[in-house]
Amino acid sequence: MRRRTRITAFSAVVCATAAITGGAASASAPPGDDYVLVHDDHGLLQIEVPAAWDQVDTRPFINDDRSLSPAISATAAADFAELTDGYAQPGLVYEARPAAVADEDVFAELDESDRCTDGGRTAYDDGAFTGQLQAWNYCDGGPARTFVLVARPIGQEFTVVLWAKAPTPAAEAHVTHALATFNATPSVGLPTATAPPDVGGDTVEPAPATSAPATGK
Question: How far apart are CA 11 and CA 124, in angstroms?
């Protein structure tokens, strides 16, 4: 997975009165002893991640055209570079992209064929989202696996991409839990503002939260 850039001054782009959080996770009380529910700063996405994962980032990504992609990243690794570049630590990235993005473009971007064995692609349908799930096995010659889900809600309002790494068979429980708990609130939609040319860097401020219901997943 190529590294993505998160931006500064998101609230200045979207809402000048938003409070600064520095990208800290917006987590509710744990749904269980082992997981916390995390929302992205834009208020579109939600997913449960292990409470033991210290690195959680809920700021959006900035795209090449300066548009913003709501995102949640979480890992047990010391930093996200370790998650992106290796297979020793579990973690995930969950983001939203435009509905028109081609599945094949996403799978090509997140292709792991140079370091993993192709585990095949299967249809995905949980009643709220439909799409395709790609598995990559024996990454770097060991037991690690990588999973890439590209899916859309029933209304086709946007595309969600869930990318997750499991270094061991036991860690695949986190992937299973992520697939069972990822969700979105279609009425929020993607950010309509774009990042100004002089906005960049590594921190971001949140857009106002919404109380609209998520999909019926």
Answer: 35
| 153 CB burial (10 A radius; 0-12, 13-18, 19+) | buried
**Quick check: 179 and 149 in contact, CB under 8 A?**
yes
pLDDT tens-digit readout, 14-58: 322 222 223 333 334 344 558 999 999 999 999 999 999 989 999
Q: What is the DSSP string of 57-110?
A: E-PPEEPTTS-EE-EEEEESSSSHHHHHH-SSS-EEEEEEEETTS-HHHHHHHT
36 phi-psi bin (left φ>0, alpha ψ -120 to 50, beta other): beta
Residue 27 CB neighbours (<10 A) = 16
- For residue 203, give Cα distances in angstroms to 1, 58, 154: 20, 10, 32
| Sheet with 61-62, side-by-side order of all strands | 5-6, 61-62, 68-69
CA 96 to CA 4: how far, in whole Å?
13
The type of residue at 104 is: E
Please state which architecture CATH assigns to domain 5-184.
Answer: 3-Layer(aba) Sandwich (3.40)
